[in-house]
Design a protein that fits this description.
Layout lengths: L2 E5 L3 E6 L7 E6 L1 H12 L4 E8 L3 H12 L3 E7 L7 E6 L5 E6 L14 H7 L4 E5 H6 L5 H13 L3 E5 L10 H14 L2 E2 L3 H8 L4 H7 L7 E4 L6 E5 L2 E5 L13 H14 L4 H15 L9 H7 L2
Parallel strand pairs: 1-4, 1-8, 2-6, 4-5, 8-9, 9-10, 10-11
Antiparallel strand pairs: 2-3, 6-7, 11-12, 12-13
Helix pairs in contact: 1-9, 9-10
InterPro entries: Carboh/pur_kinase_PfkB_CS, PfkB_Carbo_kinase, PfkB_dom, Ribokinase-like
GO molecular function: 2-dehydro-3-deoxygluconokinase activity
Keywords: Kinase, Transferase
Length: 308
């Protein structure tokens, strides 16, 4: 059985049904958690592990229950004595584009590196892939970053493939320069890089695919998969450049989990032995379906009706 670890934060999500609504729906989401859920739903024979920290409050208990319900392993989910999960609220415009308000500065997940010891590293070293994102990096406390990069070096040396998606969120960083320095470290470590052109434009001011490809020519990745919204996906590997068409979605409801669900489909398919092109095609189908529904996580029955 293939084994993937996903490092990051799961949060309490609040969303209103409409701009006029006076009530909010509560659920749980977070970029790497979203990726984990869709990966496991698509490829149930893959062992999918969350690496995060939660509290001992009722929301944390519900979160752990959700991990279990989605068949995600929680052996690397740590329990903080005095911290609780972060929270965010989503507002949607008429085009389905979202804006976020966060309450996460003191969340349990920020201290996750304080829980990771030799035995945890030994277990993760037995995995096939370790995935994290720019949001994961931004959540790690600054004083824990050196430990994080040492941890990444250890598991990479053990043969675990490192996968990284930018997911740049400016408010997680004290400056753009701080974020850039951490992202450059990630590029140096990553075997699989999953950048979006929009994120790349925001952080490195490179807003076209050719510029992104040229930027990455200095790095020793195995797979570079460049996402560009409803435009084609560009993939570079030992096979050279492959371009995969994207069919635009007409009924866009909520783009919250577009990239996350793409990553879940892609990583799961690659672990299952599919080619890069086949994996991107599946990932596009998954993302296209997910953005036609509200919220980061599509109802399991609804999702299963499309992807068995």
């Amino acid at each position: 059985m293939k084994n993937i670890y996903l490092f990051g934060e799961c949060m309490i999500e609040l969303m209103s049904a409409s701009k006029e609504a006076n009530t909010l729906k509560q659920s749980f989401a977070g970029d790497v958690f979203n990726t984990a859920v869709y990966l496991k739903r698509l490829f149930n024979d893959t062992n999918v592990n969350m690496v995060t920290a939660v509290g001992k409050d009722s929301f944390s208990e519900d979160m752990i229950s959700l991990f279990n319900a989605e068949n995600l392993s929680s052996t690397q989910v740590f329990r903080s004595e005095n911290k609780i999960p972060g929270l965010y609220a989503i507002e949607l415009d008429e085009q389905g584009e979202r804006s976020f308000t966060y309450w996460r500065n003191d969340s349990a997940a920020r201290s996750v590196m304080k829980f990771i010891g030799d035995s945890n590293i030994a277990e993760i070293c037995q995995g096939d892939v370790f995935f994290f994102s720019g949001i994961s990096l931004g959540v790690v406390l600054p004083e824990d970053r050196e430990k994080f990069w040492h941890f990444i070096a250890q598991i990479k040396a053990a043969g675990v493939k490192i996968a990284f998606d930018l997911n740049y969120r400016p408010r997680l960083w004290s400056s753009k320069d701080e974020a850039q320095q951490q992202f450059l470290k990630a590029f140096e470590s990553a075997d699989i890089i999953l950048p979006g052109v929009d994120d790349f434009a925001a952080i490195f001011e490179l807003d076209d695919v050719s510029s992104v490809i040229e930027f990455f020519s200095q790095y020793q990745y195995q797979e570079l998969v460049i996402k560009n919204g409803e435009k084609n996906v560009y993939c570079l590997s030992v096979n050279g450049l492959e371009v995969v068409d994207v069919t635009p979605v007409k009924n866009v409801v909520d783009t919250t989990s577009a990239g996350d669900s793409f990553n879940g489909g892609y990583l799961g398919a690659r672990l299952a032995g599919h080619s890069i092109t086949q994996s991107v095609e599946l990932a596009n189908q998954v993302a296209g379906f997910v953005i036609q529904h509200k919220g980061a996580i599509v109802d399991k029955a609804t999702f299963s009706s499309r992807f068995n």
